[in-house]
């Protein structure tokens, strides 16, 4: 049985447009409506098959005209950090009586615009967004039902993010404790706002003030979630700066930095210190365990879910929720 998504794709329209045409809940041009109805007929689409029927405990939501569905958008579900975040968000939202629809936005055009359209058409009640997009049409009209994670797609939007200033400070203090004189740090070269850039700014500020040289490299965001790109980039810059005695990168790159050091005959931590960022499970699987700054994914998910539900219910919330990070000492420093 075909889903509403399949009908929309076959007709070459957005999910909201397909929903309006099939439900008769809003304007759709006659030309598009014919295309949508034809696609629905050819695919044997049956109304209401794409949206789960409200469970008994969702009866209260249905009575209030709500669907009990929330959209979750991240750039890349394959990336371990986002996979963990989605897992805990789904758990927390389920506790609060909501189902979730997950969206992978990197490399898929207009995915966040589609979410905005679904919010406007009340196909979903709210959304938690982590997006690289800016100037998203219509997002201001539905901002009261959106929580932004590590991004600011519109001015004044509620944000949840880790305390990256604290994280940058922890990393800097570890490099200073270890006596590092030349630290290579790698971040994303993004034109959009993200609080995560603060960790790199703070680290450079603290280390430079103490006389430690800091080399800051910014990589293109559109490639940064590729494992091969992580590997090639860390190898390239460690070849360019072989005398770097400190490396500050996200956990996946930290693993590749450790692997490169082993292959190059550079002892870690004797000759090179490596500090990761995120606190992924893989940092504790490899040997030595990677020293890293841990983002508290369960806490992030709990706060984001609770704040979103408050917004859906029209309750007042703060504009910014900053989640503490913590230090994981491993064998790479």
From TrEMBL:
- HTH lacI-type domain boundaries: 2-63
Q: A Gene Ontology MF term for this entry?
A: DNA binding
| Superkingdom of origin | Bacteria
Q: What Gene3D superfamilies does the database record attribute to this sequence?
A: 3.40.50.2300, lambda repressor-like DNA-binding domains (1.10.260.40)
Record keywords: DNA-binding, Repressor, Transcription, Transcription regulation
Which PROSITE patterns does the entry mention?
A: HTH_LACI_1, HTH_LACI_2
- PANTHER family from the entry? LACI-RELATED TRANSCRIPTIONAL REPRESSOR, RIBOSE OPERON REPRESSOR
What's the name of the protein? Answer: LacI family DNA-binding transcriptional regulator
